[in-house]
Amino acid sequence: MASPAPRPAADEVRPPAGPPAPVGTRARWSTVPLVVRHLVLAAGALAAVLLLIAATDTVNTMRIAAVGYSVLAIAGLQVLIGASGQVSLGHGAFMFIGAYTVALLVIRLPMLPLWVNLLITVAVSAAAGVVVGGATARLHGPYLAGATLALAVGLPSLAVRFPELLGGGNGLAFTTRGAPPALAATVSTAQWQAAAVWFTVLLALTVLATVSRGRLGRRMRAVRDDPLAAAAAGIPVGRTKVAAFVLSACCGGLAGACQGYLLGTATPSSFTLALSLSLLAALVFGGMGSLWGALWGGAALVYLEVWAEDAAHALSLGTSVTNNLPIVLFGLILIVVVLLRPDGVHGAVRDAAGAVRRAR
């Protein structure tokens, strides 16, 4: 009589075969290519913005659009400072380049569509980024900050130096196209312009987010953390710094182009040193190290000024107080945020979201 087959040991017992375990939504989402994920998120954000501007008046629509190009400008500064560690005090100069490039294109070549003007603006801004990045690649710390500070102070004066071309102190005024005839009856000019600005901003943020998560982003973070170790690992430190300047310049130029397109003007008084410092303060307020910080910084940059002016008018304060109250209020809030949350508003939001997930 045959002996029964030996049973496997307890640690060798396997469960019976069955259908594969279902893959969670989060796991399936992580298998989607990175650029596709970013495009899907950008499409959802654009849909939310379109619903928002459809439900607001013209003034609030313009403010929403202003938040858009402010977010893009701060995101470009985030790439330069937060990702590559290069301190810049002249980011407003690239916005100046973008705004005047669009103004000259609209005035001199009015037949060009908006998207062509924006592409040309990106090319001009990239060329400026190569020049500035190449000239400052060996600088760091206060020397780099001083060089970019000179750029922010000196570049807007070109409008006064060449008044025939750049309009002098009054700048350039131009008229942009509104909504297409098929949509003109249902969509106002402000709504169409705000939608165009946010479409451009979200497309640029998609590119930035993809690059930041890719090889160039890893190189920039390595150069930021330790340039010597990065060079020893074979990373071209100089070219990586220039690439970061080019990305930042493209974002700044595109933001300035969106501002000029929205307002229909390009004036040197709009791109003073105060703008560059405000963008830097908004970046610190929102939180360096993440593109989400640009969103909080851009919203604060626009709406804190609006709320401060409304409060000053409600209290019947003088003109000088009304003009300076937004700066004082933003400075006080920035000090509080830096003392309590050095990682900015996004750091606080991230920690709160993590606490909610752990509680669940």
Automatic annotation (TrEMBL):
Protein topology in the membrane: Multi-pass membrane protein
**Region Disordered, residue ranges:** 1-24
Sorted alphabetically, which InterPro entries does this protein's record hold?
A: ABC_transp_permease (IPR001851), LivM-like (IPR043428)
The residues that cross the membrane are 34-55, 61-81, 93-109, 115-136, 143-162, 190-211, 279-304, 324-340
Cell membrane keyword on record: yes
Among Pfam families, the record links this protein to: BPD_transp_2
Q: Which CDD domains match?
A: TM_PBP1_LivM_like
Q: What keyword terms does UniProt attach to this protein? A: Cell membrane, Membrane, Transmembrane, Transmembrane helix
The record's subcellular locations are: Cell membrane
Q: Does the keyword tRNA-binding apply?
A: no
Q: What is its main location?
A: membrane
Superkingdom of source: Bacteria
Q: Record's GO cellular component, any one?
A: plasma membrane
Q: Which GO terms describe its molecular function?
A: branched-chain amino acid transmembrane transporter activity
- Name the chain's protein: Amino acid/amide ABC transporter membrane protein 2 (HAAT family)
Which species is the source of this protein? Murinocardiopsis flavida
